[in-house]
Amino acid sequence: MIELQSVNKIYNLGQPNEVQALYDVNLLIEENGMVCLRGASGSGKSTLLAIIGCVFPATSGRVAVAGKQLARLPDRFMTIHRRRTIGFIFQQFNILPDLTVLDNITLPLLPLGISPDERRQRAAELIERLGIGHRRDFPAGQVSGGELQRVAIARALINNQPIILADEPTAHLDTSLSHDFMGIMVELKKAGKTIVIASHDPLVTEHPGMDRIIDVRDGRVNVS
Ligand SMILES: Nc1ncnc2c1ncn2[C@@H]1O[C@H](COP(=O)(O)OP(=O)(O)O)[C@@H](O)[C@H]1O
Ligand SMILES: [Mg+2]
Questions:
Q1: Which domains are delineated in the chain?
Q2: Pocket test residue of 11, 13, 38, 200 for ligand 1, highest count of atoms within 8 A of CB
Q3: Element (H, E) at 81
Q4: 11 CB less than 6 Å from ligand 1?
Q5: What is the mean pLDDT of residues 3-8?
């Protein structure tokens, strides 16, 4: 499902502020399971997630996601591939506070030419499933942190993407909401999704539903 071979990432290549964030990463993540990228701050977790999530390309190496070699895809196709394949739950949720909960969730469908009725229907189903039906027409800026994360989860699921990526998803949640989050991830795994979570929170890394932990240290991954 996700395969990285000899992947390097260098930010600001050739400039005085050049930083190598990933060194020769080799990684194979099979379909349908929940995997954790565990590592200290600055170890390269977010960079790795962004490469898997087609947010930006690796500097060198080969990356295949859901059967496509990313390096061979022109930018425009990379964006299309990302929309079809990846649901990304960002650390800061990336929610637009003035839009309603429902409109935030349907945002990823706008470029896809899906009718407003179908957009609303798909979002309404997810909103109910995630238990935030009572917040559907609230401006997203007025709902609680836990509810906001469910909005972010719903948005990551709206196009029925097979891969869910989450970057430090419990960083802004209390223990109870963190447990709830992991419960939702376990349900999604059972529904056949492939889930990759970057975290150093023991509540995530040591969760019984976690199938595999991948340690990231100083930009290196040692797969045991
Ligand atoms: N946009 C960027 N420009 C320059 N350096 C960056 C950028 N993003 C991350 N880095 C650097 O790359 C390394 C890995 O960062 P990151 O992937 O964010 O780690 P983590 O998510 O594990 O905290 C760090 O040294 C960080 O400072
Ligand atoms: Mg990070």
A1: 2-221 (3.40.50.300)
A2: 11
A3: helix 75-85
A4: yes
A5: 97
Q: Which atom of ligand 1 is nearest to the CA of 219?
A: 14
Ligand 1 atom closest to the Cα of residue 9 is 12
| Alpha-carbon span 109 to 116, nearest angstrom | 9
Residue closest to 223 by CA, chosen among 64, 19, 4: 4
Ligand 1, from 36, 41, 46: best to mutate by most atoms within 8 Å of Cβ?
Answer: 46
- Name the average pLDDT for the chain: 93
Poorest-pLDDT segment among 76-80, 107-111, 125-129, 220-224: 220-224
Rounded mean pLDDT of 53-82?
A: 89
Cα 6 to Cα 30, 74, 82, 210, 221, distances in angstroms: 18, 21, 22, 26, 11
6-42: per-residue pLDDT in tens?
999 999 999 999 999 999 999 999 999 999 999 999 9
Q: What type of residue sits at position 31?
A: E
pTM assigned to the model: 0.93
Q: Is 224 a residue whose pLDDT tops 70?
A: no
Tokens 């080799």 correspond to what residue?
A: 26
